Amino acid sequence: MQDKKRVVLITPCFTKWNHGYSLTSVIEDQIRMLVRYGHSVKVLVGETFDVSEVSIEGPKFLPIIPVLEEAVDYRRYDDLWENKQHIRCAKILSSYLSEIIKDDDFVITHDIVFTGWNLPFFHGLKEAHLTCPCYHWIHSMPTAMFDWWDVSSMGDNHNIVIPNRSHRQLSAEAYHTTVENVVYIPHIRDIRTFLDFGAEAIGFIDKFPKVLQADIVQIYPASSDRFTHKGVRDLIYLFREFKTMDFTVCLVIVNQWATGRQRQEDMEDYIDTAQNNGLGPNEFILTSYYDPPNYELGLNQKFLKDLLALANVFIFPTFVEAFGLVLPEAILASGALPVVNSHLEVMSEVLEGRGMRFGFGSWTNGLAKPHGKQWYKAVASAIAARLQNEESVACRSLVRQEYNMDTIYKKYYMPIIEGNRTWKVREISR
């Protein structure tokens, strides 16, 4: 892993930790991500900020930014000199920054170099003459050009960050710099923090990251004595075919009642079947094997709902069913694409004929289970095509994979924190 850095976040807008303010969630996820990857984080906020409002572990909040007695939306840099209290605040901040940041490695600011309201803090930052890399987040489209928007005047170590590629050239022109100094970093929107995942699910994802990152994810609750009736081997064969199509996959079987005190099927046999069909230990997972013996009886409701939320498909090849409660549960938890057994009439009844339907065999109608690799390949191809063309499912999968803090950190933050400026050049050619 990369060297750990001492990172400073500067956000003068914060005098309260208000989650009704969208910037709060942006900065909170940014802090959690940096702490997660082992960096030391200091957050400079307004001097009236109540640190006790924040429950994030790891960062050090320093309420030192002076509060402006009067809010002024400046239009010109020269107008700042007419407000003596604002000039005093700028000098105080400059002095603080020169002292506090002298041993730090990396600075992040939010909207300091953008809004007229923050011009006194911009001036203080500029006069501090920081020498470490400084990245200034701009959270709105620069529709105007103000005379203090001159990043080049701050030094070569200062860069603009915007959350989209579309406005890079516009931002470079607005801030009197080159496009190489405008960095694209999308906002984090991590399913774990957005849906308030519990510690158990977060720990599970840390051990099996493919459940968050894979292209095709299914969470399948099934009692350990009913794997045959629930069609677990059918799922293994289908996920084998997904993988041969170059999709990354993760199939999690939530198998309760795995204590060995009652009849159950041979779990090792299913693990061997998965491995023989190309599914590794991070692609075919039995929850009873995770942190034994804690989950041999099953997962608690919160843990299960959190995992279900990660799925984008719910294939239900059950051979016999009275209702199949896990089907509506999976749909409610994740909006996953439902794939049901057309040979089992109750499945059509539960979803009123909706969802993809394939014949997996039926005990009630005496219909045999399918055989042959070509059948599984054809079914997997149809499901994969629907997953990519069902807009709500495809978009949810994209957000899950691309905007979580692990992906964002490795793709965007790690290169600039390590000082790899060639990364920005590569971004230009996209």
What features would you describe in this structure?
- With 430 residues, the chain is an alpha/beta fold.
- The protein has 2 domains: 6-190 and 405-428, 3-Layer(aba) Sandwich (Rossmann fold); 195-402, 3-Layer(aba) Sandwich (Rossmann fold), CATH 3.40.50.
- 38% of the residues lie in helices and 14% in strands.
- A 7-stranded parallel sheet has the order 3-2-1-4-5-6-7, sandwiched between helices. A 3-stranded parallel sheet has the order 8-9-10, with helices on both faces. Strands 11-12-13 form a 3-stranded parallel sheet, with helices on both faces.
- Helix 1 (22-36) links the parallel strand 1 and strand 2.
- Helix 2 (84-100) packs across helix 3 (119-128) and helix 9 (232-244) packs across helix 14.
- The longest helix is centred in the first third of the chain and has 17 residues, at 84-100.
- It is elongated.
Name the beta content range.
Answer: 5-15%
Count the strands? 13
Order of helices and strands: EHEEHEHEEHEHHHEHHEHEHEHEHEHHHH
Quick one: biggest sheet? 7 strands, parallel
| N/C terminus separation | 27 Å
Number of helices: 17
CATH class of the largest domain, named Alpha Beta
Corresponding CATH architecture of the largest domain: 3-Layer(aba) Sandwich
Main sheet strand line-up: 3-2-1-4-5-6-7
